[in-house]
Amino acid sequence: MAIEWASTAVTGYLHTRYPHRARLIAEWTAQLSAEPADVSALPATWRPLLGTVVERLIGLDLSSTPPYADELGWLPMVVTDQVLAGAGFAGTGDDWRTWTRDPATPIQADNDWFWVCWRALEVIDLVNQMTAPSPDVQRGMWDWVSGQRTTPDEGVLAALAALWRRYLDSGRARLRALGNLRGAAPVVEDPFTADLVVGTTLVEVKVYAQPTSGDLSSWIDQLLRYVLLDRDDRWNLDRVAIYSGWHGDLVELEFSELFARLTGAKTVSFRVERDNFAIVATEYLERAYFKRHGRTRSG
Question: How far apart are CA 214 and CA 255, in angstroms?
């Protein structure tokens, strides 16, 4: 779930505890500095949704069974069927949760499918901003979005087509080399979800054509939050990566090197780091949980 970390305490802690980030930022910025020739111009306000759509399309492509089951359940059944069938999922029954696909075969997308997926993610994004919406409200959002988007947006379609070409040309092989998909929108701590867990790597998907050093610093903070929130090590992670959609490229680092470089220490106890972060983030986690579920953790 996309919840902003509007907490000066959390951000301040991360920058104080992990201050040695300038060299890493410079390395990653240099790797992602070349602006691709086929970047499509979209309003800047659409970039977060564009990134989410690309992330979800990749999750569908790497999956053998339907991911995002909760979110797909918010859509009319016919729309869910269109999303999954367009991704190559098929089955013998009406229950799409039992459908399967071969993740070795990439999704061959077209504009009709892109547009269905874009509108579906608009609905999901709106529902995710609500507090405990009823099933009727969830499903009713499709009619509202469809009324607002009566004709396909050519800019959206051009951007998705270009990003998908880059993914098929190079990004897909890089991601599959990390291992099998183990989590699509994996919950690291309710209500916070990351983008993907592939093998033992936490992957965040970004669609910035020329990310700045400030962008990279905020992405490092994001990776740290997710890694530190996984207190019980439920995902058995040992590596982080950022997939840059416009470049079809990954920047990645093992935990041991990431924490050593950011702290300046030769060895770091992940258990201690996670426990300390939990103390700092407790209040914000409680507020985020209440915003998502309309109740406290204790009920």
Answer: 21
- Residue 93 in any domain: the answer is yes
Whether residue 18 is predicted with pLDDT greater than 60 in this model: the reply is yes
- CA proximity to 222, closest of 5, 75, 50: 5
Residue 2 lies in a domain: no
- By percentage, how much of the chain surpasses pLDDT 90? 71
pTM of the model: 0.94
Distance of CA 101 to the CA centre of its chain: 21
**What is the structure's pLDDT at 1?**
43
Residue 299 lies in a domain: no
**How many separate domains does the chain show?**
1
Name the pLDDT band for 111 (thresholds 50, 70, 90). Answer: very high
Within 10 angstroms of residue 97's Cβ, the number of other Cβ atoms is 13
Q: Determine the structural domain holding residue 80 and report its residue range.
A: 8-293
* Torsion angles phi and psi, residue 28, rounded to 5: -70, -35
Is 165 contained in some domain?
A: yes
Cα angle at 295 between 290 and 298, to 5 degrees?
105
